[in-house]
Amino acid sequence: MTAEKSVEKKHEAFGFRALLAVAMPLAATVGCFSITLFTDRTLLMWYGPTSSAASVSAGNLYWAVVCIPVTAMGFITPLVAMTLGRSRRRGAVTRRAWSLVWQCIWLTLACVPLLVLVGWLSPRIFEAFGHEPNLAGEEARYFRTLLLVAPASMLEAGLTAFFIGRRITRPILRTNIASAVVNVILDVWLIFGGLGLPAMGVLGAALATAIAMWMKACVFAVLLFRVRSFGRHFAEAWRPNLDVIREIVLPGSALGVQQLIRSSLFSFVLLVIGAASVTGLAATSAALSLYQLLSIPAIGLATAVTVVTGQGFAAGGSGLAGMAVRRGLVIGAVGVVLMSVLLVGFPHQLLRIPLGGLEAAQRVVIEPIAVTLLGYAAVYGFVDVASLLMGAAVKGIGKTSIILVATAVPGVLSVTLGYALAPDGEAAVTHWWTVLVVWAAAQSAIVGGGVVQLFGFRSVVAANRGRTVDDRDQEQPPPHAVRRDRIEVR
């Protein structure tokens, strides 16, 4: 193979087509999860606005509790991707991938006692924020039941890394579609009751999520067990390995702390909105549900950027990685423009989905506020998606401390200042959405500076030292050469 053809092949492996090939199934996978979350909130909105508001605040608090372990397990994905990018024998690559998966299992078991303790202490949390007794009771029930999902979420994050890090996405997509169907069916049944069961409201929504998530984790475990290399490397990979655990936990925990800070501050904002206006919190729930639904492609693209950037950096340095980042940002820019057009141009049509099941008297109060918030969501989307994609690139090469700093510093400053200047009543709703936009903009600027330093500056240095992509191509195999050790099912 000539040097020119080799370079062209590498560019194809890290170009637009490669990103989209990974991103589209992952976007559909994220879409399944978002659809289930959207279904939860929409059906709870139809069940009662108080139930929907409880699902938003309790759901965000749940994520604040479990985000460190779940996010740390998610860092296995870039570790697998970088492993495949380096020049290693196929057996060594597969053995290391299995070792990473097994450490996820051990870490999940270690976290179970802590989750039990949090569940025991949880009822006091919502009462401390002064929420109305009815709202606080529903929040506590939803939160405690959701804690059953946490171990399954940790296992899913680690087990799916074996596939995603290898750019194998079809098994994940199929499993998530099945899980989403089960969740939606159980939502309708358990929230509203039927077939001999009473209506459970938020408790039913949480139980449906728990059942569907554990089903998904079990399916992924079975899929992994059926991989030929599972038995071949079992004896070497199953034991706890402190060195590998440190590789996961240290940078993964930085991402987890980042998520904890973000989710805690976000939960605080929602709790404050709920204390100021239950109607405002219900409108926020409707606007957030639509934003999360429309931002599904960006989340799938971000995971693709993490994988492709990690493989590119390991195989060819910052040149290939930077190319993947730039192309990911171009795709993301197109998507966020389309999303914003929908949010601003068709707000009433979109709001028929989350608010369609309400009585006219309730809808006429909530909808005007929700329309305004969709405009804020459109602006928020530009900076949020930019931060998401650039953060995914940084995560792909393991520099997670940048994301932590970019989230923590502007987040704490924005929320602190916002709390000091917060008005009373429904005016607090738009005030806090403004705070969220300012926070996301500052975060995007800081992460963007890190991306320029990591990829732009290093590319110049590599060029000045005379190392080109052609030089590195003689040292490393193309990514697809390693990926032949795929799922060889018995």
Automatic annotation (TrEMBL):
The UniProt entry, under PROSITE patterns, shows: PROKAR_LIPOPROTEIN (PS51257)
TM regions (residue ranges): 14-38, 61-85, 97-122, 142-165, 177-197, 203-225, 265-288, 294-316, 328-348, 368-390, 402-421, 433-457
Keyword Iron: yes or no?
no
UniProt entry tagged with the keyword Transport: yes
Protein name, as recorded = MATE family efflux transporter
Location of region: Disordered: 468-490
Keywords (alphabetical) are: Membrane, Transmembrane, Transmembrane helix, Transport
Q: Which InterPro entries match?
A: MATE_fam (IPR002528), MATE_MdtK (IPR050222)
